[in-house]
Write a structure and sequence with these properties.
Length: 719
């Protein structure tokens, strides 16, 4: 995406802050996926006819040799509302509304239609032609990015059973190598080399890597298509070969967990819409079909699979965007079977962790919008038995519900609970000391040294311990593994990711706010090179997402350094629709019939950065991916004059057609995110911001669009 002409014009004339020699050979270590990318699109085909402003004259000269491919229009009517034989929701409009989609023919679920593939090839060739003059610049950037990457590296070993486990990377190889040692000074044993798994394949994604309870077997799942359909393979660690008599588990979703011993594994299957919906048990060494334990009929619900650190339970959750239902399999039971924690009730979300004879539950029940912690006995886990975590005495401050503190999840150890969430727009961590899994003895918020940062739970396999590992970074601090002592509240940095040719003292970050048109204060995280900061405006790269309650954290990325070193300021807009400011930032102000706040916040943030002299429209580049690509399509329709360059990665821009069709993966579950356009309640509102339906004849900025041919989340035909 850096190879876009207009963005290059912003960069190429800028002096580089750190000059270095790059002497190592080019490898493929920067990119694992080899997806087919599409430059140009059906949804922005009208933009290719736009009048180019006069200050683009140099660019026009370069581009005049090749005409953009023009997709054939084939009239097609899409029905939005009730359609016989299709799931269009419980309140679908009758009769259905009609929308014209002249490019509907581009959708080919098999990815084999020659007319479609030839058009995509033409788009790719056009992109190559238009960016041919950037070849040397791309290579320069590649070497620069590669120069910030320590290719031969090793992660911090973590204890698990009698071994220390870790992964490492090796120069010239694209994938991780999984290893273990019997002790710090013991010889290394390679238990899985993903590079060997990838041999003979154009694509390789290893999803789960799980050790059996005895540590003699390893189960891993791998996808070689890019469609996120996996096969599970069980490896005998004595021979490092697939276990004899085991053909593997095909057509599964990638999640796998071991039972109480080496005899069985649990996994999930997907339906035709790529939704994980069934839980299965596979007994090793047995013939015949595996045992189906659960099937979720409601297409809005997705099934997930996990195993708490205590090792006692398999946890299966069936969740939609707004409702959850959790089942447990007690592996200590001689005949383990699924038992429900609490039956689903619309609007009630909850998740569970385990210690001793108690479940620690995170839930939004009873109006706790930002979630609270409750406990319940394992024997009687239903909601009627949920209660606040009692304190050991009256001098202990309760960890009660706080509307200004959002709890995201709790992770139980034997004698404490690590709680992660958000407060004040940033990620936070709290440690609760508990007795017997049910009584709170004390608690504290863990403090970190920088004013803006990201912290999340690291790899912790030991249940009975007084330490917890976390991953920490900021916009100037590379990812670090920190070990926190719950006894004396001390922190030890075990490793900070080494970033060659990087000196953090040359960079700084700031936190500011932009005032949205309705008065809402939108946080903005900014990072730049100190020596390149000007008194007046300068090039600025603005990123945002703003959907699903997902937070875009102020964390470190070495991929930003080529921008910063050329005097480009990098900013993240923490707009509504995300979860940065709590659940209401998403649920009440950034989804369904308030979704336009997401687009307005981004435009208002961009205007704020212009008004406060950080940049100008002629020096402003923006980026969003997937649902963030929907954001890009929305804001360029609203304010094309405000941006110079738009990078839209796998953008979800054909929202009306996609969200009305339940056969497309993700669609039904997404009705609880965007609304269902088949319903009168949402039809007009969604149509008013759907990017493809709001393209008009106006001067648009330069746009770079990418799509993945086999992407199951955003179909290649979307953009």
């Amino acid at each position: 995406t850096l190879g876009l002409s207009s963005l290059q014009e912003m960069l190429v004339a800028k002096p580089i802050l750190q000059a270095s020699a790059y002497t190592r050979s080019i490898t493929h270590s920067l990119g694992r996926a080899k997806s087919t990318f599409v430059g140009g699109s059906k949804s922005f085909s009208a933009l290719q006819q736009r009048r180019v402003p006069s200050n683009h004259s140099t660019l026009v000269t370069r581009m005049s040799a090749t005409q953009p491919p023009k997709a054939t229009k084939k009239p097609h009517t899409v029905l939005i509302g009730g359609v016989d034989g299709e799931n269009r929701g419980s309140n679908a409009m009758t009769p259905p509304r009609k929308l014209q989609d002249d490019y509907f023919w581009m959708r080919d679920d098999e990815r084999k239609d020659e007319e479609v593939l030839n058009y995509l090839k033409a788009e790719n060739q056009y992109t190559e032609d238009q960016t041919a003059h950037l070849k040397e610049f791309r290579e320069e950037l590649y070497l620069e990015l590669k120069g910030h990457l320590k290719e031969t590296d090793e992660q911090v070993p973590y204890p698990n059973g009698d071994f220390l486990y870790y992964t490492r990377t090796q120069e010239g190889k694209s994938y991780k190598i999984h290893c273990r040692k019997a002790g710090p000074d013991a010889p290394e044993e390679v238990i899985l080399d993903e590079n060997k798994v990838a041999e003979g394949h154009d694509y390789c994604d290893v999803h789960s890597v799980e050790l059996s309870p005895s540590h003699d077997l390893l189960a891993y799942s791998v996808d070689h298509s890019g469609y996120e359909t996996y096969k599970c393979v069980v490896v005998d660690l004595a021979s490092k070969e697939p276990l004899k008599g085991e053909a593997g588990i095909a057509e599964m979703d990638g999640s796998v967990e071991w039972g109480i011993d080496n005899k069985e594994v649990y996994y999930l299957k997907q339906d035709a819409a790529h939704r994980p919906f069934e839980l299965w048990r596979h007994r090793l060494g047995t013939e015949g079909e595996d045992e189906k334990l659960f099937s979720e009929p409601d297409e809005k619900f997705w099934v997930s699979l996990s195993k708490p650190r205590s090792g006692r339970f398999i946890v299966m959750a069936s969740e939609s965007s707004e409702t959850a239902e959790v089942h447990l399999i007690d592996l200590q039971d001689p005949n383990p079977s699924l038992k429900i924690v609490q039956e689903r009730a619309f609007g009630v979300l909850y998740s569970v962790s385990h210690t001793g004879d108690w479940l620690v539950i995170t839930t939004n029940a009873d109006g706790a919008k930002n979630f609270k912690l409750v406990v319940a006995p394992v024997a009687t886990p239903g909601k009627q038995h949920w209660r606040a975590l009692p304190t050991s005495n009256e001098d202990v401050t309760p960890f009660d519900y706080d509307p200004d503190r959002m709890i995201e999840f709790a992770s139980c150890f034997k004698n404490f609970v690590a709680v992660f969430g958000r407060q004040g727009g940033l990620t936070r961590m709290w440690v609760l000391h508990i007795d017997g899994g049910k009584t709170l003895r004390s608690w504290c918020q863990v403090e970190f040294p920088e004013p803006a940062y990201e912290v999340h739970l690291g790899t912790n396999m030991v249940f009975d311990t007084d330490k917890v590992r976390v991953q920490y970074s900021s916009m100037v601090t590379p990812a670090s593994t920190i070990e926190y002592s719950v006894v004396d509240q001390s922190m030890t940095t075990l490793k900070e990711t080494e970033v060659p040719l990087y000196d953090r003292s040359l960079y700084t970050c700031e936190r500011t706010t932009a005032t949205a048109r309705d008065g809402t204060q939108v946080p903005v995280s900014i990072v730049y090179a100190k020596a390149m900061k000007k008194e007046g405006p300068q090039p600025l790269f603005l990123y945002a997402y703003g959907s699903y309650g997902a937070s875009m954290e102020p964390s470190f990325s070495a991929n930003r350094l080529p921008l910063l070193d050329r005097g480009v300021v990098y900013a993240i807009a923490h707009i509504r629709g995300g979860g940065e400011m709590g659940r209401a930032w998403y649920e009440d102000q950034g989804k369904y019939l308030t979704k336009k706040n997401t687009f307005n916040d981004f435009v208002d943030t961009a205007e704020h950065l212009v008004k406060t002299n950080w940049t100008t429209p002629e020096m402003l580049a923006i980026e969003g991916r997937s649902a963030g690509g929907l954001l890009m399509g929305g804001v360029v329709n609203m304010r094309p004059d405000l941006f110079k360059v738009v990078l839209a990665g796998v953008p979800f821009v054909d929202i009306m057609v996609t969200m009305s069709d339940s056969s497309i993966p993700l669609t039904v579950g997404e009705w609880e995110e965007w609304g269902n356009p088949n319903e009168e309640k949402y039809y007009e509102y969604m149509l008013s911001y759907s990017p493809i339906n709001n393209v008009v004849a106006q001067d648009y900025p330069s746009i770079m669009i990418t799509a993945g041919l086999n992407d199951p989340r955003v179909g290649y035909w979307e953009p």
